[in-house]
Design brief:
340 residues; mainly alpha; ABC transporter transmembrane region fold; 9 helices; elongated
Length: 340
């Protein structure tokens, strides 16, 4: 016998419904199928946001240079007004982008919840299967939240962070290629250790989601006297704990190394840029803008790392969601029970 998630449980019969969920297996296919036009509009807003993100750096450079060179203070006031206008435009655009993202994500949650409602067949209220199916349905409904939230930013988020990274890097190279090269050389090791550590985190994240799903089903199984001692549950609890600790160690080690790289870039900018200001090769405003640019690289790089971490976790959750809906609808053959 199977519960609605495809897990073998005693005393339960598999629900048979005439209509399947019709969901694609990959979450990005679902994104395109349900929100392609909205993703295009989100991408357009995203491009506007990251293009405007570079303008304040140039305005900072000009303001500092004008002050140092003793030019009319009116120029600094005009630059400050321009800076304010750019910040307002960019902030308003980003506000609209975030609200639009939220709307797209909530729209996806509504769609998935409607699919659940359409395919779940409730057994007689007094049967043991009713309680198990109700718990399983609640689990699936809860899993809609991260899936829908990811859908709203699935394309615009990496586009935004990559756009900020590339535009700021281009501006830094424009200020001084050699100083940019020195900072980039310190940044290169992150291209090695970040993917390696992130891949290890992704593997543990996927395993953790599977363990927690099995643990939830184990609670139902124990209620049916499948494992009255609870040994299997205890093993899965310990396994989830070990996976969580492994994720914490890897994640915070990666954060430490990324922060160290950022500070080394700042030190390199101080040394190289300071020497060139001292020798008259570079303006001090360029060094200030360069340091601000390095600060702006930290957040998008970290956000990209977090995004690719979320991709793995959300894809696993989405695949489990699709499989569970297919079990409800009876559109796939009964799978084997997940081994303990």
């Amino acid at each position: 016998m199977l519960d609605p998630l495809g897990i073998a449980l005693p005393g339960m019969s598999r629900p048979r419904l005439p209509v399947g969920a019709g969901l694609p297996a990959n979450i990005f296919r679902y994104v395109v199928a349900t929100s392609a036009v909205h993703q295009a509009l989100l991408s357009l807003l995203t491009i506007i946001v990251f293009v405007l993100d570079v303008v304040p750096l140039e305005l900072q450079r000009r303001a500092v240079n004008d002050l140092v060179e003793g030019r009319a203070f009116r120029r600094v006031v005009l630059i400050a007004l321009g800076y304010t206008g750019i910040v307002l435009v960019q902030g308003s655009t980003k506000l609209g982008l975030n609200v639009y993202r939220g709307w797209v994500g909530e729209r996806a949650k509504r769609d998935l919840r409607r699919r659940i409602r359409a395919v779940v067949a409730a057994p007689p209220a007094a049967s043991p299967a009713a309680e198990a199916q109700g718990i399983a349905s609640a689990m699936i409904v809860a899993e809609v939240e991260p899936i829908g939230g990811f859908l709203g930013e699935s394309i615009s988020e990496p586009l935004l962070q990559c756009g900020i990274l590339l535009s700021v890097l281009a501006y830094i190279v424009h200020i001084d290629p050699w100083m940019a090269l020195a900072a980039f050389a310190i940044f290169v090791p992150q291209f090695v250790f970040v993917p390696l550590l992130q891949a290890a985190v992704n593997r543990r994240t996927g395993a953790r989601i599977q363990v927690l799903r099995r643990l939830g089903i184990g609670v139902i199984a124990n209620g049916e006297q499948k494992d009255p001692s609870g040994r299997l549950d205890e093993q899965m609890i310990e396994r989830a704990f070990a996976l969580d600790m492994g994720i914490f160690r890897l994640k915070f080690t990666m954060n430490f190394l990324m922060n160290l790289g950022t500070h080394l870039q700042v030190i390199a900018a101080f040394l190289v840029g300071g020497w060139w200001v001292y020798t008259g090769r570079l303006e001090i405003g360029s060094v200030v803008a360069f340091l601000s640019g390095i600060g702006r690289l930290t957040d998008p790089w970290g956000d990209l790392v977090n995004y690719f971490r979320d991709v793995t976790a959300t894809q696993v959750k989405y695949r489990l969601f699709v499989n569970a809906i297919d079990r409800f609808s009876g559109s796939e053959p009964a799978p084997r029970a997940i081994p303990g």
